Structures are given as C-alpha cells and as structure tokens.
Amino acid sequence: MDKEEMRALLEAVKNEEISVDDALLKIKTAPYDDLDFAKIDTHRGVRQGAAEVIYGAGKTDSQILKIVSHILEHGESSVLITRMNKSAAELLEENGIPLFYHELSKIGIAGKRNKDCSRGCIVIATGGTSDIPVAEEAALTAEYYGNKVVRLYDVGVSGIHRLMDNAEVLTRANAVIAVAGMEGALASVIGGMVDVPVIAVPTSVGYGASFKGLAALLSMLNSCASGVTAVNIDNGFGAGYTAGMINKMRSEK
Fold it and tell me: Is the entire prediction scored with pTM above 0.90?
C-alpha cells in the first residue's frame, strides 16, 4: 500500500465511507513489495507487532543489501538480520548503512539500534561456553525488542553447583532460555527450579552420538519438567523472540 492508497483509505474513514475496523483490516492485509528475488512484507509490524526479520543464510550479500535498504526506505527505523556473514556486514557499511554487527552470533542490526533494553527480565543460561554463539543470537534478539536480558553462561549440569549458586537470578526472570548441547539436560533442571516458562534451545554442540543436536532436542522434547518448551536446533532467534513476547505480557500485567 503506497502513500496515495493510504491517504485515500484514511479519507474514506474520515467521510464515514468505511469503518475503522474495515480500514484496519485493509492495512493488515495490504500487499507486499515485490523485489523479484524477495517479497517484502512491509505490513508485518501492523499485523504482528514486529517488522520482518531477515534470515541471512543462503542470501547473497547484495540481496541482503537491497532488502535492508528497501525496508529502511519504507518507514522502518531498523532491521534485524540473523545468520549474517561478515562480508554482508561490510557491504552494508560500505553503502553508508549504520550497522551493529556481532560476529560470534552473526546478528546484524541495520539502522537505529534500540538502546532501551529495560522491560522485565529474561535470563539466558547455557550449559557451556561452546553454546554462547546460539545464546547470543537469543540475547541480542530479545534486546532488539526492548527486553532486559541477564546472561548466565557455563552453568551446565556437569558442575551443577554453578547453576545452584545462581538460583536467585533465575527467580527474577519472566522467562528463561536454556541453551545446551550434549544431552540437553540443563532445560529440565531449570524447569524444575522456576515458576515461569522455560524455552529450551538444543545446540549442535557435542560428540558423534549427539547427532548434531538431535540428542539434545529429543531430551528437551521429552522433559519431565512442566513448562519446558523446545525450539529447533540452534534456533536462538526463535527462542529470543518468543521469550520477548512472554516477557512483554508478564511485564504489562
């Protein structure tokens, strides 16, 4: 929907030719912008409360540049990019697009970065240091949407006293993200300690029989602790986004 179509729609509401609810429905279902190789959902923020996020893996650097430029030129102040290669980040910066880039997690934030990360509290815990790249994808995603994030890294069950020493930190959370590879036991342990939703993120960290995260995923799906829900292997973004939605709902009570 371009500016002229939007103006005409607002005029129709003003003249009582269309109801506010019908106008809102038209805005929510407005068509996408077709770039040939990508169809930009410019009205996702209206429908879902958050604008479209770019999944960088599999896209060329120039495709990412064109998508980011289009989104920024059509009303968004920033764009979140996941699984972004360093070369794509360098290309955006070469073209004058302000960019925050975190190489470990491959998260990029083009445009204006949200500095207000004060809503509620999300705790992100990892089994080991090797799980941090996925945890940081979750953390930076949650912070992008304005959530306060507390990082609790390397507190796996092989030295469970490290987790128990931080039990008070866990109790302050509105949601907990448990990131672990190997057998993925961390999520079940945390699930038995807290009274808030636990989002389990299996990682591809582990030796051969971990099957690149499948063993941890199955452990988390079969958790005996109530309130544990699992996302896909290495899906830090999905966990961070969902935890942010939970945190927002609990913070607005």
Answer: no
